[in-house]
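Onboarding guide, step 5: your first structure request.
Type a short instruction followed by the sequence, for example:

Predict the 3D structure of this protein.
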Amino acid sequence: MGGLRIGVLSFNDSRRVLKLGVQDLIEHGPPGGDLRVESVRSRSVRARAGQDAHRAWQSERAAGEEQYCVEHSLTLEFEVSGWQVTLSGRVDGLFRVGEHTIVEELKSTALWRDRLDKVDVNRVPAWKQQVQVYLWMLQELKHPGPVGRLVLISLVDGSQRLMHIAPEASIGEWVRERLDWFIARRERWLVHRDWRRAVSVPFAYTSHRPLQRELSEKIEGALADGQHVLFQAPTGFGKTAAVLDAALRVALRNDKRVFFATARTTQQRMAEATLETLAERGLTLRSVTLRAREKGCLNAQVSCRPEECRFAEGHHDRVRKNELVRRLQATGAVDPAAVREMSELHTVCPVELAFEYAADADVVIGDCSYVLDPDVRPGRLLGRDLSEWIVVFDEAHNLPDRARGWSSPTISTDLATKARESLSTRGESFHAFVKLAQGVIEALDPRALVALGPRFRDGAVSVDFDRERFRALARSVDERALDYILACVQSGHPPVADDPYLELSRGLLRFERGLEREDGNWPVLFRQEEGLRRLTICCLDTGAVIGPYLETCAGSIHVSATLAPFDLHARECGLDVARVGWVDAPGFFTPDQLGVLVCPDVSTEYRHRAADRDATAAIVEEVVRAVPGNCAILFSSFAFRDQVLEAVSLDDRVLLLQRAGMSEDARDDLLHELKVNAPPRVLAGVLGGIFAEGVDLPGDCLEAVVIVGPGLPALTAERELLRAWMVENGGEGFHEAYVVPGMRRVVQAAGRVVRTERDKGVVVLVGRRFGRVDYTRLFPEQWEPTETAWPWLAVREFFSERKLSTGLEERA
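The system replies with structure tokens like these:
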């Protein structure tokens, strides 16, 4: 619990025994000093190269030194603060020379010979401390005259630097101080754990909506059995309260924690509000919301180094001195505004402070990528697996596409060109980096690629290419990462988060990792348009990517109003069907509350849009006029929306336009406008966008939603490859790749209208495809649609409180 299940560290609380490794002691003890966040990280290239360098050195030393022991294990047992501590370590090399025991610790580096020769041991304090801890352990174990050697091996040119390290008398005290910190933290957790076990979880609200308690108990039972729960319930059911009720009951009983994972930031507020309500009802849990670094940063630019950010300089020291984590724990539920206020007051980084608080929190709220994307997943918080966590995936229907996105790396000449141009005027010290950017541009030359098939409709071509060339570029970027940072600082151009070269470096390393898992499920696409060239490794089997993570969870709940078909979602998430429980909540509204109208007289298919534009506009215009209050018109794309709206007259109604890439402030302003209904507002947006799903529109914000065509995904090469792959693996191809995600967007958008038992509204589906069986079979069971050529007449009748006729009727 509390971020302590890392490395070999473990507690036996009943026996008061602590076992940990030297790496745990150094890397995961109390942080101090400045905050530094790496700009470029490689988890594969450096690791493999470092292992090879270690083995080569050890083989050479063992051949020349008869008593040389490779990977020698050390174990020391002693007592600290009433706990029996077992500290273990494994030294890379150990041997005797006369009256001395020699310890060798090997570290790989990206520095070449001339730089390596200038490295001072005090510039690598963690490595120095590791050797000194080994020396102290050897002294305690009565080994004669221990002395240390820190061996740095260059991965660039193979050069080596050997530095002698003498024992320090104070290191034993330093070890015990750090162990005191681990133990004190654990003892505080044990007090909190006992409280958690004894506390009862009240339901967040004094009254339940129909079936809310019953279904919460069903979810709780499935979680208790270690299952993954797929929970589908209509918008307005109160899903967040129901699933948090179940997840918290199981988590508090079994010493687990809850991660509430979202696909959009707007969904996080719903979880925060539920936890605040629980606190008002007497259950004050430790909870925190994690924000992306770019959104939470207090600095003028995102640059997490003390040289560039006053909130990073001395961050850890101020957090410890002012006991900020302890103070947040006393508060309990902490929202981003509270973290930001405390961070501004004490000049610390709010993003990092939230992560430090999360280490001992009961509930953590954050983006789903934190749980499942290996490139952003915070291992310090989630550990090597998710066995400590029950994960709630809100709006889980988005999860496969999100995973497909972050698992399909792209490398482009656009970014490489920006990096080259931004560095070309900075002088000789940047020539090597300009050359690297140019190397990426040359590697993307079409002449270096081999087409494997015909061109797709969107211009993409499936290709083969020289993988080793990209691996070599990734190694070069990785090896020169530190040099780039130093060159920037020395030239007075410190790198920032959106530095083109750093973005190129991160993209190249991510692309290289994609090459490692490339197989038949990872085709590669090449695109060239207007001088821009892109290479994309396409993830088709998302289950193979996220399934292994999900199978380590203590349990997970996938929540959405649109999870059906359940077997498809389970397959796309890589879930073991034997470990899946399905919970489907019926709708709480009646046809008197929600009228569903189908108008199939026009075609919204791309090839028919121009011809049917005026007829489509006339239907939309008449329906909007028939709605007494606010309504939304939602289209499959901005281009289609603008094409139709050109022919629509809204009279005195106020038009609110969703824009692509709107800021959070702009979205909030538009939502505020939508709560005004005099004169009535008309929101014109897109399916799948922020206003069509993932936002709560309470009260009578909307009385109708007009949906013009199903929101099928664009006909891209990636989507066509996915369709073909689904067919090859026994799926329905077009239906699963296009129709299902398109209709999920439709049902999500329809859910913006009726959200409580008191609401009343109409959903109008415009387009021929809404009358086809392969689309209507994805309508929610509680819908009772009426097919009509004159939906505006039915809308007027509905709002005059005359019941809509029910059942899908044949038109004359």
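Each response can be followed by summary notes, for example: The radius of gyration is 30 Å.
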